[in-house]
Design brief:
The protein has helices spanning about 1-25, 95-105, 180-195; strands at about 25-30, 35-40, 45, 45-50, 55-60, 65-70, 75-80, 110-120, 130-135, 145-150, 155-160, 165, 170-175, 205-210, 215-220, 225-235, 240-245. It is of the alpha+beta class. The chain folds into three domains: about 1-65, left handed beta-beta-3-solenoid (Ribbon); about 95-175; about 180-245. The chain has a six-stranded antiparallel β-sheet with strand order 8-9-10-11-12-13, with helices on one face. The protein has a four-stranded antiparallel β-sheet with strand order 14-15-16-17, with helices on one face. It has a three-stranded antiparallel β-sheet with strand order 1-2-3.
Length: about 240
Amino acid sequence: MNKVKKLSLVILTILSIQITNSTMANAYWKQSSQGWQFTKGEAYSVGWDKIDGSWYYFDSNGIMETGWINDNNKWYYLNDSGAWEESKTTTVVPNDIQVMYDIINIYNGSGTIKYENKGFINEIGLSDKSLYKFSAEDQVGNNISEYYYDSSNGNVYKIKQGITTLLNSNITINNTNTQISTIEAVEKVKDYLLANGKYVPSKVEYDHDESNSYVIHCYDTTGEYVTTGGWYYVDKFTGNVTSMF
Protein backbone atom coordinates (compact mmCIF):
# COMPACT_ATOMS: atom_id res chain seq x y z
CA MET A 1 0.00 0.00 0.00
CA ASN A 2 2.80 2.43 0.91
CA LYS A 3 4.53 1.68 -2.41
CA VAL A 4 1.31 2.46 -4.27
CA LYS A 5 0.94 5.76 -2.40
CA LYS A 6 4.55 6.70 -3.11
CA LEU A 7 4.16 5.80 -6.80
CA SER A 8 0.98 7.90 -7.02
CA LEU A 9 2.77 10.84 -5.40
CA VAL A 10 5.65 10.56 -7.87
CA ILE A 11 3.23 10.46 -10.83
CA LEU A 12 1.33 13.50 -9.54
CA THR A 13 4.60 15.39 -9.05
CA ILE A 14 5.75 14.58 -12.59
CA LEU A 15 2.38 15.63 -14.04
CA SER A 16 2.50 18.88 -12.06
CA ILE A 17 5.99 19.66 -13.37
CA GLN A 18 4.92 18.85 -16.94
CA ILE A 19 1.86 21.13 -16.69
CA THR A 20 3.95 23.95 -15.21
CA ASN A 21 6.62 23.59 -17.89
CA SER A 22 3.94 23.47 -20.59
CA THR A 23 2.33 26.66 -19.27
CA MET A 24 5.66 28.50 -19.10
CA ALA A 25 6.54 27.30 -22.61
CA ASN A 26 3.35 28.91 -23.90
CA ALA A 27 3.91 32.16 -21.96
CA TYR A 28 5.13 35.15 -23.94
CA TRP A 29 4.84 38.93 -24.31
CA LYS A 30 2.28 40.17 -26.81
CA GLN A 31 1.75 43.76 -27.98
CA SER A 32 -1.79 45.00 -28.63
CA SER A 33 -3.14 48.41 -29.66
CA GLN A 34 -3.36 49.33 -25.96
CA GLY A 35 0.04 48.10 -24.79
CA TRP A 36 1.80 44.90 -23.72
CA GLN A 37 0.21 41.72 -22.37
CA PHE A 38 1.84 38.61 -20.93
CA THR A 39 -0.12 35.67 -22.28
CA LYS A 40 -0.20 32.20 -20.78
CA GLY A 41 -1.79 29.89 -23.29
CA GLU A 42 -5.33 31.21 -23.76
CA ALA A 43 -5.16 33.39 -20.60
CA TYR A 44 -3.15 36.49 -19.71
CA SER A 45 -1.68 38.03 -16.58
CA VAL A 46 -3.89 40.31 -14.46
CA GLY A 47 -2.66 42.14 -11.35
CA TRP A 48 0.85 41.44 -10.06
CA ASP A 49 2.99 38.83 -11.80
CA LYS A 50 6.67 37.99 -11.38
CA ILE A 51 8.31 37.44 -14.76
CA ASP A 52 12.02 36.65 -15.22
CA GLY A 53 12.81 37.93 -11.72
CA SER A 54 10.95 41.26 -11.99
CA TRP A 55 7.46 42.21 -10.78
CA TYR A 56 4.95 43.68 -13.24
CA TYR A 57 1.39 44.92 -12.81
CA PHE A 58 -1.37 44.32 -15.36
CA ASP A 59 -4.77 46.02 -15.42
CA SER A 60 -8.13 44.21 -15.62
CA ASN A 61 -7.69 43.87 -19.40
CA GLY A 62 -4.23 42.38 -19.00
CA ILE A 63 -2.40 45.52 -20.16
CA MET A 64 0.99 46.13 -18.52
CA GLU A 65 1.08 49.31 -16.43
CA THR A 66 3.92 51.84 -16.26
CA GLY A 67 4.47 54.84 -14.01
CA TRP A 68 2.67 55.21 -10.67
CA ILE A 69 -0.12 52.86 -9.61
CA ASN A 70 -2.07 52.70 -6.37
CA ASP A 71 -2.77 49.25 -4.98
CA ASN A 72 -4.28 48.73 -1.51
CA ASN A 73 -3.37 52.28 -0.43
CA LYS A 74 0.27 51.93 -1.45
CA TRP A 75 1.97 53.68 -4.34
CA TYR A 76 4.21 51.61 -6.59
CA TYR A 77 6.43 52.91 -9.38
CA LEU A 78 6.80 50.86 -12.56
CA ASN A 79 9.54 51.98 -14.95
CA ASP A 80 9.18 52.39 -18.73
CA SER A 81 9.74 48.64 -19.14
CA GLY A 82 6.97 47.94 -16.64
CA ALA A 83 9.28 46.54 -13.92
CA TRP A 84 8.55 47.57 -10.31
CA GLU A 85 11.19 49.78 -8.67
CA GLU A 86 10.88 48.71 -5.04
CA SER A 87 12.85 51.63 -3.56
CA LYS A 88 10.17 54.13 -4.67
CA THR A 89 7.24 52.38 -2.95
CA THR A 90 5.42 54.76 -0.59
CA THR A 91 2.16 55.32 1.30
CA VAL A 92 2.27 59.06 0.56
CA VAL A 93 0.83 60.48 -2.66
CA PRO A 94 3.86 60.98 -4.96
CA ASN A 95 4.65 64.55 -6.02
CA ASP A 96 4.00 63.72 -9.70
CA ILE A 97 0.49 62.50 -8.90
CA GLN A 98 -0.25 65.40 -6.55
CA VAL A 99 0.60 67.85 -9.34
CA MET A 100 -1.87 66.02 -11.59
CA TYR A 101 -4.55 66.17 -8.87
CA ASP A 102 -4.06 69.93 -8.58
CA ILE A 103 -4.30 70.47 -12.34
CA ILE A 104 -7.40 68.26 -12.71
CA ASN A 105 -9.10 70.13 -9.87
CA ILE A 106 -8.64 73.40 -11.76
CA TYR A 107 -10.82 72.02 -14.56
CA ASN A 108 -13.23 70.00 -12.41
CA GLY A 109 -16.57 71.74 -11.89
CA SER A 110 -18.15 69.33 -9.42
CA GLY A 111 -17.57 66.03 -7.66
CA THR A 112 -14.65 64.50 -5.79
CA ILE A 113 -11.58 63.58 -7.84
CA LYS A 114 -10.42 59.98 -7.51
CA TYR A 115 -7.28 58.44 -9.01
CA GLU A 116 -7.95 55.38 -11.20
CA ASN A 117 -4.39 54.39 -12.24
CA LYS A 118 -3.70 54.35 -15.97
CA GLY A 119 -6.42 54.62 -18.61
CA PHE A 120 -7.01 54.27 -22.34
CA ILE A 121 -9.22 56.62 -24.38
CA ASN A 122 -10.63 54.23 -26.98
CA GLU A 123 -12.61 56.97 -28.70
CA ILE A 124 -9.53 58.80 -29.98
CA GLY A 125 -7.03 55.94 -29.85
CA LEU A 126 -4.50 57.44 -27.45
CA SER A 127 -2.07 54.93 -25.95
CA ASP A 128 -2.43 54.39 -22.21
CA LYS A 129 1.37 54.50 -21.73
CA SER A 130 1.38 58.08 -20.45
CA LEU A 131 -2.31 58.66 -19.61
CA TYR A 132 -3.20 58.85 -15.94
CA LYS A 133 -6.91 58.35 -15.34
CA PHE A 134 -8.99 60.25 -12.77
CA SER A 135 -12.74 60.21 -12.17
CA ALA A 136 -15.10 62.75 -10.66
CA GLU A 137 -17.67 61.18 -8.33
CA ASP A 138 -20.79 62.66 -6.75
CA GLN A 139 -21.70 62.30 -3.05
CA VAL A 140 -23.03 58.75 -3.46
CA GLY A 141 -20.10 57.54 -5.55
CA ASN A 142 -21.61 57.79 -9.05
CA ASN A 143 -19.13 58.51 -11.83
CA ILE A 144 -19.86 62.00 -13.22
CA SER A 145 -16.98 62.30 -15.68
CA GLU A 146 -13.48 61.04 -16.43
CA TYR A 147 -10.21 62.93 -16.79
CA TYR A 148 -7.00 61.77 -18.45
CA TYR A 149 -3.66 63.49 -17.84
CA ASP A 150 -0.97 62.97 -20.48
CA SER A 151 2.34 63.17 -18.63
CA SER A 152 4.29 63.40 -21.90
CA ASN A 153 2.86 66.81 -22.86
CA GLY A 154 0.59 68.02 -20.04
CA ASN A 155 -2.64 67.64 -22.02
CA VAL A 156 -5.81 67.07 -19.99
CA TYR A 157 -8.75 65.25 -21.57
CA LYS A 158 -12.27 65.04 -20.20
CA ILE A 159 -14.89 62.46 -21.16
CA LYS A 160 -18.49 63.11 -20.19
CA GLN A 161 -21.54 61.50 -21.78
CA GLY A 162 -19.50 60.29 -24.74
CA ILE A 163 -17.89 63.66 -25.48
CA THR A 164 -14.07 63.88 -25.37
CA THR A 165 -12.68 67.39 -24.81
CA LEU A 166 -9.08 68.60 -24.75
CA LEU A 167 -9.39 70.98 -21.80
CA ASN A 168 -6.14 72.86 -22.40
CA SER A 169 -7.72 74.47 -25.47
CA ASN A 170 -11.39 73.59 -24.83
CA ILE A 171 -11.57 71.71 -28.14
CA THR A 172 -14.03 68.85 -28.64
CA ILE A 173 -11.98 66.00 -30.08
CA ASN A 174 -14.71 63.44 -30.46
CA ASN A 175 -18.44 63.30 -29.86
CA THR A 176 -19.89 59.82 -29.48
CA ASN A 177 -22.89 60.95 -27.50
CA THR A 178 -24.75 57.71 -28.06
CA GLN A 179 -25.94 55.35 -25.38
CA ILE A 180 -25.12 51.68 -25.23
CA SER A 181 -28.09 49.32 -24.99
CA THR A 182 -29.17 47.46 -21.86
CA ILE A 183 -28.10 44.23 -23.56
CA GLU A 184 -24.61 45.68 -24.09
CA ALA A 185 -24.59 46.84 -20.46
CA VAL A 186 -25.28 43.28 -19.29
CA GLU A 187 -22.40 41.99 -21.41
CA LYS A 188 -20.13 44.72 -20.02
CA VAL A 189 -20.81 43.45 -16.48
CA LYS A 190 -20.12 39.84 -17.47
CA ASP A 191 -16.83 40.89 -19.08
CA TYR A 192 -15.95 42.95 -15.99
CA LEU A 193 -16.54 39.99 -13.66
CA LEU A 194 -14.51 37.60 -15.82
CA ALA A 195 -11.64 40.07 -16.25
CA ASN A 196 -11.41 40.52 -12.47
CA GLY A 197 -11.54 36.80 -11.72
CA LYS A 198 -14.97 37.03 -10.11
CA TYR A 199 -17.83 34.54 -10.19
CA VAL A 200 -20.46 35.20 -12.86
CA PRO A 201 -23.93 34.38 -11.44
CA SER A 202 -26.49 32.53 -13.55
CA LYS A 203 -28.64 35.67 -13.79
CA VAL A 204 -27.15 38.97 -14.97
CA GLU A 205 -30.02 41.31 -15.79
CA TYR A 206 -30.87 44.96 -16.37
CA ASP A 207 -32.89 46.32 -13.44
CA HIS A 208 -33.44 50.06 -13.94
CA ASP A 209 -31.93 53.38 -15.01
CA GLU A 210 -30.25 55.69 -12.52
CA SER A 211 -29.06 59.05 -13.85
CA ASN A 212 -26.45 58.33 -16.57
CA SER A 213 -26.10 54.68 -15.62
CA TYR A 214 -27.88 51.38 -16.07
CA VAL A 215 -28.24 49.32 -12.90
CA ILE A 216 -27.45 45.64 -13.47
CA HIS A 217 -28.41 42.94 -10.95
CA CYS A 218 -26.37 39.72 -10.66
CA TYR A 219 -27.87 36.79 -8.77
CA ASP A 220 -28.51 33.06 -8.53
CA THR A 221 -31.78 31.28 -7.82
CA THR A 222 -32.33 28.07 -5.87
CA GLY A 223 -35.98 27.14 -5.87
CA GLU A 224 -37.81 30.11 -4.39
CA TYR A 225 -34.63 31.59 -2.93
CA VAL A 226 -32.57 34.34 -4.54
CA THR A 227 -28.89 34.79 -3.71
CA THR A 228 -27.68 38.24 -4.69
CA GLY A 229 -24.24 38.27 -6.25
CA GLY A 230 -24.01 42.03 -6.66
CA TRP A 231 -25.33 45.27 -8.15
CA TYR A 232 -23.39 47.23 -10.74
CA TYR A 233 -23.60 50.61 -12.46
CA VAL A 234 -22.82 50.72 -16.18
CA ASP A 235 -22.26 54.18 -17.66
CA LYS A 236 -24.67 54.61 -20.58
CA PHE A 237 -22.11 56.44 -22.68
CA THR A 238 -18.68 55.06 -21.75
CA GLY A 239 -19.70 51.53 -20.75
CA ASN A 240 -17.58 51.74 -17.59
CA VAL A 241 -18.62 49.30 -14.87
CA THR A 242 -18.53 50.14 -11.16
CA SER A 243 -19.76 48.11 -8.21
CA MET A 244 -22.68 49.63 -6.32
CA PHE A 245 -21.31 48.47 -2.96
